[in-house]
Amino acid sequence: MNVLGYRLTLTALIGWLIILVCVGSAVLAPWIAPHDPNAPLGQRWEAPSAEHWFGLDQIGRDMFSRMLYGGRISITLAFLATCLAFAVGVVAGFAAALLGRWVDVALSRIADVILSMPILMSALIVISAVGSSAAVLILTIGLLYAVIVFRVARAVAMNIVVLEYVEAARLRGEGLFWVILREILPNALPPLAAEFGLRFSFAFLFVASLSFLGLGVQPPDADWGSMVKESALAIPAGLAAPLYPAAAIALLTIGVNMVVDWLLSLHSRPHGDNA
Amino acid sequence: MLKLLVQRLALGVATLLAVSVLIFWVTELLPGDLASNILGQSATPENIAAIRAELGLDRPAVERYTEWLGDAVQGDLGKSLANKRPVIDVIGPRLVNTLFLAIYAAVIAVPLSVLLGILAAIYRNSVFDKGVNIASLAAISMPEFFIGYFLILFMSVQLKWFPAIATIKPEQGFFQHLYVTFLPMLTLILVVIAHMMRMTRTSVLSVMSSPYVEMAVLKGIPKGRIVVHHALPNALAPIINVIAINLAYLIVGVVVVEAVFTFNGLGRLMVDAVAKRDIPVVQACGLIFAIVFIGLNLIADVLSILSNPRLRHPR
After folding, report:
1. Looking at residues A201-219, what average pLDDT do you find?
2. How many CB atoms are located within 10 Å of the residue A97 CB?
3. Omega of the bond prior to A220 within 30 degrees of 0, cis?
4. Per-residue pLDDT for B2 more than 80?
5. What is the crossing angle of helices B266-276 and A119-130, to 10°?
6. Does A41 reside within a domain?
């Protein structure tokens, strides 16, 4: 199937559909949620029924409605963190590739040191110092992932900087930001688009994990990760309540990864397996 | 080659030092002063000054950092703010538990994933190979708590085969430990195996496309023999690297799995300390995790230098 000149595979189509459903239901939550997400409506852990598709949670709130609203928080946080990571990482990566010399060396060494710690540990240490809030989560995850984006962007730009037209633009006396925006970015866009999807899926899992550990989104707000944590006590009772938000997390991540695979295959650039 | 090894070692130590500075700086110098954090609502200027003096926060940061690092090197990691016990006593047993779980998972996951990866490379594009691809995509996408809770619901609550809570007690025997921690181990394996398998497959395949393997094919050597005798030795370095990264993950990334199974490991200790803002414990945990992480990467580097025939005999 061809869409806008791109060959769309079945996996890519499924992936896009999953993303569309998840994002769409998050955006439309106030209109399509069948119940008030914060109102107790019955017994705790009430089993799924036609009225309550995913049953009720630990204090009798409708799980399905809460998941629609929770998706808004999870997706927004991950998306903003990814945008921040790209804004900082791409500029720094391109600057390192263009300017070279000490700028490149300094930025690369800083990146090496930061990435020599597991990212989850770095985030935990920051949260222990400043506490957790939406802004802290976006800044911490965004800046930590900016380091990874920096490496990718630098590697991509390195291959473009040596091309003649960039050389010509610099000889014409174009400024650094102009060269980055008009000369390098358009050609770096395809590999960066795939990286954006991949980064988003990792940021999304990251937010979910932190919330699950009780260090992410704080009550009374709830995202999918904290919903898993809050309803975990249903498991020993033999109920699947925490599996619904957990499955939603897995579903969106799989959808994004399907699209990422498709983006990579479109340009079939060699790309590392690990992120 | 010796020069190369010494270089790597020095680089590892330098990185560790830089990371220790980072840990110290972030936990002590970021806004949100430690003293007012401890006191919370009841903070008055006099209280804060008293606590700052008690913790030594009134002295210059560089002085406190060198003292902290000096003590840490000698095994003194300070006292926990939460219960006043020496941090080393709190951390010790937790570290042993985490290492036990990680080694348990590694002993099963590493040989299994290398074997499956090689099989996927030999039977490239077969049903088995495609299954491996789909499984690894699923494993990368599923959060650990999804796999963990699913296993608990299925194997512990419904079938009652294994306990849902993995508590290790000293009076239990070794095999009892293995039994109690079976589900967290299985969760970890499911998370890491796909990645290791995929990397093994990729690196064997990339060697398989080289001229000398084509030569071996043309000579009529059986496929299995080519993979094991010709391709594998040269694919070993990247495989070792992936194994080291995943071992580091097993020790460092178990935080979520430990929370799911309320396992008394180092990761859960750190999460609790972060929630309670018990800074000395956070610092110590961060430092230990950094040592493990950097150390394993260093070992991977050294092993891949040793296993690479071209680096072993430099011109």
Report:
1. 86
2. 25
3. yes
4. no
5. 30
6. no
Structure tokens at A67: 């998941």
Chain A residues with CB under 8 Å of B140 CB are: 253, 257
Nearest-CA distance B45 → chain A (Å): 20
* Inter-chain residue contact A117 with B19, CB threshold 8 Å: yes
Query: What is the ipTM, given to two decimal places?
Result: 0.78
The answer to whether A164 contacts chain B (CB < 8 Å) is no
Cβ separation B153–A240 shorter than 8 A: yes
Q: Which is nearest to A215 in space by CA: B276, B220, B139, B95? A: B276
Number of residues assigned to chain A: 275
Q: Is A214 on the interface with B (CB under 8 A)?
A: yes
Give me the amino acid identity at A156: V
Domain boundaries, given as residue ranges, for chain B: 2-73, 92-312
Categorize the per-residue pLDDT at B119 as very low, low, confident or very high, splitting at 50, 70 and 90: confident
* Chain A residue at shortest CA distance from B30: A129
Q: Find the mean pLDDT for residues A75-88.
A: 92
- Locate A116 and state its tokens: 């020599």
Q: Which two tokens stand for residue A115?
A: 């990435």
Query: CA-based Rg of chain A, rounded to a whole angstrom?
Result: 22
Per-residue pLDDT tens for A38-72?
777 777 777 777 677 777 777 777 778 888 888 88
Contact pairs from chain A to chain B, CB under 8 Å = 144
Structural tokens at position B56: 């030594």
Scan residues 99-138 of B and list those with Cβ closer than 8 Å to A.
137-138
Work out how many domains chain A is built from and give that number. Answer: 1
Whether A48 maps to a domain, the answer reads no
> Which of A66, A40, A70, A43 has its CA nearest to residue A54?
A66
- pTM to 2 decimals? 0.82
Least confident range of A76-80, A149-153, B60-64, B117-121: B60-64
**A contacts of B22 (beta carbons < 8 Å):** 113-114, 117
Nearest residue in chain A measured CA to CA from B202: A273
CATH architecture of B92-312: Orthogonal Bundle (1.10)
Q: What is the CATH number of the domain that holds A261?
A: 1.10.3720.10
Nearest to B286 among A113, A121, A257 (CB): A121
A120, B253: Cβ pair inside 8 Å? yes
Range of the structural domain that residue A129 is part of: 2-33+54-268
Lowest mean pLDDT among A22-31, A106-115, B72-81: B72-81
